[in-house]
Amino acid sequence: MDTTQKAVKRQASFCNAITFSNRPIVIYEQVRLKITKKQCCWSGALRLGFTSKDPSRINPETLPKYACPDLVSQSGFWAKALPEEFANEGNIIAFWVDKKGRVFYRVNDSAAMLFFSGVRTTEPLWALIDVYGLTRGVQLLDSEIIPPDCLRPRSFTAIRRPSLRRETEDTRLSVSLCDLNLQEENFHVMAAMCPIPQNSLNSQHSHLLPSQLESDLRFHQLRGAHIKILDEQTVARLEHAREERTLVFTSRPLRINETIFVKINKSNTSRTGTLSYGVTTCDPSSLRPSDLPYNPESLVDRKEFWAVCRVLVPLQSGDILGFMVNSEGELHLSHNGASAGMQVCVDCSQPLWMFFGLHGAVMQIRVLGSTLMTERLGPSAPSSPTSSPNSPSVLCNGVSDPILSTSVSGLLGSSLSGTAPNSPVSMPESPLSHSISGSWNDECTICYENMVDTVIYSCGHMCLCYMCGLKLKKMANACCPICRRAIKDIIKTYRST
């Protein structure tokens, strides 16, 4: 936190940065934040909400790593994740609660949107801000009052009222940050994302497809409430609602090294937004339509493994996308024959269903079929995120930070599968051994003082001193600082020289 108590910056990792306002927020008062720092190696964004618990009476050590779902599962806390596309540096986010307990938000000068509801307004409410994932730093701006007579979403007008503004330093709105006891991280610079060439409007790309496609892939019958199934391989989005439940799933799990080809059958270029996609270990047959949210990013808070991404370029009618998960757990994307590189690392030790969310310009998609790796679309994708300049720097849900130190490959036997419920993902392999990758990194990645002398089981990473390892192991949901895999044990090592 800076000296003005107006700006905060997360010190390390992607979580453990829950903050609060220093005073209660009144009904219809906008809490206004400016995003000052974005860190593209993570996914997920700000979690915003309110609490009826006085933060000055909360022990920082009792705060969980995540506002969602850990903190909101406790009585007196309400929060939700901001959509990732709004988590850009310079954006000003405003959120407030009305007398009915409904929380609204707006981005810059956009219309107000309903965020969530159910907040108890009979008690004092403090603002809750979780500086999470992509969002690394925020600055608190002066608050504003929304007139109570402007109750309809998307028609709010913020009115600056100097008489309602708190001018003294003691009563200004500020945030307080718990002591994380972590040092500034030292990330390696990843390769910049290679731009993907755009195609002309309504052009067809059937010539880019392999000569033979497997045709057994269908859309699952489970779908969002605002999706219409035109046939087994084609779905369309209904246009009557702005915030829509538009998720669809594949009818069967993916095969390793299988490329799925999806065509944008219809788009509306006058609208903003693009296609969401991802993979999950959750069998869609076990879900109900009411389980499917408006925002796909909120699925990562469920107990199953979910990885959610968005296509980062505008999509037009006729575009063809290719999705492939290889044996290393890397999900690769291609767009009209051009490889976009690896998008996310996923847990491929379990069956994975693919899902799509139709947003913005994307009105209708069709599954064209699939093929194995030998007939993949476009040039070969890199086998690791750092092996090619085409690898993106923006990794989506389920990706840990770049590797900060080396570890022993294959140590303690093969890695065990599975991901802790609230950890992003377990990396499929440990990095190369010392003899191949170079010198050891001697600094513990937590205290930055002691020498690394401990191996984490079962991922095999060597990035901690023994004392930090003991402390970390005792924490709830303890996970490796490198790959976020659950810690089963720590083993002290001894070097021969």
From TrEMBL:
Record-linked InterPro entries: B30.2/SPRY_sf (IPR043136), Neuralized (IPR037962), NHR_dom (IPR006573), Znf_RING (IPR001841), Znf_RING/FYVE/PHD (IPR013083)
EC number(s) on file: 2.3.2.27
Keyword Methyltransferase included in the entry's annotation: no
Molecular-function annotations in GO: ubiquitin protein ligase activity; zinc ion binding
GO CC list: dendrite; perikaryon; perinuclear region of cytoplasm; plasma membrane; postsynaptic density
This protein's record includes keyword Metal-binding: yes
Cell location: Cell membrane; Cell projection, Dendrite; Cytoplasm, Perinuclear region; Perikaryon
Domain RING-type per the UniProt entry, residue ranges: 444-484
Reactions listed under catalytic activity: S-ubiquitinyl-[E2 ubiquitin-conjugating enzyme]-L-cysteine + [acceptor protein]-L-lysine = [E2 ubiquitin-conjugating enzyme]-L-cysteine + N(6)-ubiquitinyl-[acceptor protein]-L-lysine
Pfam families: Neuralized, zf-C3HC4_3
Annotated ranges, domain NHR: 1-143, 216-370
Keywords: Cell membrane, Cell projection, Cytoplasm, Lipoprotein, Membrane, Metal-binding, Myristate, Notch signaling pathway, Repeat, Synapse, Transferase, Translation regulation, Ubl conjugation pathway, Zinc, Zinc-finger
Gene Ontology BP terms: negative regulation of Notch signaling pathway; Notch signaling pathway; regulation of translation
Source species, domain of life: Eukaryota
Membrane-protein topology: Peripheral membrane protein
Pathway involvement of the protein, from the record: Protein modification; protein ubiquitination
Quaternary structure note: Interacts with CPEB3 (via N-terminal domain); the interaction increases CPEB3 ubiquitination. Interacts with DLL1.
Function, as annotated: Plays a role in hippocampal-dependent synaptic plasticity, learning and memory. Involved in the formation of spines and functional synaptic contacts by modulating the translational activity of the cytoplasmic polyadenylation element-binding protein CPEB3. Promotes ubiquitination of CPEB3, and hence induces CPEB3-dependent mRNA translation activation of glutamate receptor GRIA1 and GRIA2. Can function as an E3 ubiquitin-protein ligase to activate monoubiquitination of JAG1 (in vitro), thereby regulating the Notch pathway.
Protein name per the record: E3 ubiquitin-protein ligase NEURL1
